[in-house]
Inverse folding.
């Protein structure tokens, strides 16, 4: 999200580390780039400003995963940009998003409908899309920059062949013909020619061919002879197994990094509880909360001991091994596994379905955390009964975030919590 966007890092390198965070300097560079119509630099600066605005909101909670002095690794930044159903925060990478909007502009140039701006562009540019006027115009520079990327992530379906590049688009299975028959392509004088042009006028080749190019010419001529063109618009798909029609949304997804889904995060984000609870329970599950043991290991607390007892206040101790936590889970008759485990592995009590139980786990852990904070900061002790009652109250408030058909299961869970608090 951050580092990957700095394609013009060199242009920004003139700004010192302190200066880079200065709003006025960034704004000045933004205005300069805007005046110069430098799209890449604009994208990088937009990303910088966006990151500065968002860092405290979305990125900061993840800094608990970093050791002091660590720079933000790119992998974690990319993780933020994963979709929520893949376990990420679903934050848009503006640089990638801007690029996909430019790809959509290039895609529109591949449509045969007549619009004034397209007619104007075709009039001023070269013969084929990709051939640019000299010197290149502002739009030419966008096409030059984005057309190779557009061709690399799409696949064309030939109908009339008027908007598909014979050599550079993927319209046959496998790679583009320019890569498969590189020797012949090196002799081509019209590299951006469309399929329709090649069928009508033939390959535009230099007068003399090498022996390798001569052999490849026979194969390529076979492809040309087999083409049957029809009236209509060529099709354009994203080059992926599902092959969706091109759109900036699908292009964004195609250009997004892939990573195996984080199961714990997926469970947390699927909760229909307030976002702060989802984030809390996820951080609790991966042991990134500011427990005393974690703070002590970073020299941020004088002691790592639990406020209620003398044991180290680890995530495991706080939520499962401390006396009040043992009392809470015991009253609910929920067995606590030995060793390391995910909070989502806790078995639901009898009569509670697994979906409601995940909300129950989050609510109970949240109540334990609130009780711990009350004891630590306000010196107000709590009991398991009080804690379970508070969890039941939270559930009765948050049940409205769920669909009506889920209310019955949540009410069963709430009844269980109330009965365990007696
Ligand atoms: Zn304790």
């Amino acid at each position: 999200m951050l580092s990957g966007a700095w394609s013009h890092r060199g242009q920004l390198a003139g700004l010192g580390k302190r200066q880079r965070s200065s709003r006025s300097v960034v704004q000045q560079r933004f205005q300069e780039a805007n005046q110069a119509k430098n799209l890449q630099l604009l994208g990088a600066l937009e990303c910088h400003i966006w990151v500065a605005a968002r860092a405290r909101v979305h990125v900061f909670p993840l800094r608990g995963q970093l050791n002091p002095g660590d720079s933000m690794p790119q992998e974690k930044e990319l993780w933020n940009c994963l979709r929520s159903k893949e376990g990420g925060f679903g934050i848009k990478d503006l640089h990638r998003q801007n690029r996909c909007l430019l790809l959509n502009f290039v895609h529109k140039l591949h449509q045969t409908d007549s619009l004034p701006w397209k007619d104007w562009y075709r009039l001023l540019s070269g013969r084929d899309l990709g051939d640019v006027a000299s010197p290149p115009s502002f739009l030419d520079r966008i096409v030059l920059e984005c057309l190779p990327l557009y061709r690399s992530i799409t696949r064309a379906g030939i109908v009339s062949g008027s908007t598909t590049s014979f050599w550079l688009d993927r319209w046959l299975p496998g790679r583009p013909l320019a890569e498969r028959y590189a020797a012949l392509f090196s002799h081509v004088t019209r590299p951006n020619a469309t399929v329709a042009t090649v069928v009508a006028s033939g390959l535009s080749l230099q007068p003399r061919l090498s022996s390798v190019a001569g052999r490849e010419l026979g194969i390529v001529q076979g492809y040309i002879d087999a083409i049957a063109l029809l009236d209509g618009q060529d099709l354009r798909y994203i080059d992926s197994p599902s092959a969706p029609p091109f759109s900036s949304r699908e292009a964004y997804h195609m250009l997004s990094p892939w990573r195996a889904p984080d199961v714990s995060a997926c469970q947390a984000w699927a909760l229909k509880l307030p976002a702060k609870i989802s984030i809390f329970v996820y951080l609790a599950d991966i042991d990134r909360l500011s427990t005393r043991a974690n703070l002590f290991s970073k020299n941020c607390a004088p002691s790592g001991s639990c406020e209620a007892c003398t044991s180290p206040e680890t995530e495991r101790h706080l939520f499962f091994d401390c006396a009040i936590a043992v009392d809470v889970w015991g009253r609910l008759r929920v067995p606590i596994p030995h060793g390391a485990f995910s909070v989502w592995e806790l078995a639901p009590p009898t009569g509670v379905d697994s979906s409601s139980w995940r909300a129950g786990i989050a609510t109970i852990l949240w109540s334990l955390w609130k009780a711990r904070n009350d004891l630590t900061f306000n010196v107000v002790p709590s009991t398991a009964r009080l804690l379970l009652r508070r969890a039941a109250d939270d559930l009765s408030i948050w049940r409205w975030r769920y669909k009506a058909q889920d209310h019955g299961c949540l009410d069963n869970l709430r009844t269980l919590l109330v009965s365990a608090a007696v």
Summary: Residues 55 and 385 are 39 Å apart (CA to CA).
